[in-house]
Amino acid sequence: MRRTRWAKEFVGKDMTVVAKRSQKPTKDEQELHSVWQSVHRVLNQCVAGVTDCRERNWSLIPFWLNSSEATKADDRPFGTDKDKSMVQRYIGYWQQFMCYCLRSVKEGENQGGV
Question: Is the pTM of this model over 0.85?
Fold first, then answer.
């Protein structure tokens, strides 16, 4: 919450609206459902691309992925030993966030800094 500053961003906002905007798309929201599926597909491909770096002899890439500096690799590699259910949960959060952003823009409200 400190890094995202969401606690400050949502002060005084109707959290029911925020939660509703982040829900999985309904059958009537075909375009949003396509975005939902795309986020899932792309992030799964990203995870697969990171986890097989060593197999492809790209052993330095995980060190660069873990770095916060554009010109310097980190001393430790980016962790790829995550539990698969945790990765899927994290992908779900991104799916919800994309829905929240797109619904907020569509509704013309700047709720939550979108």
Answer: no
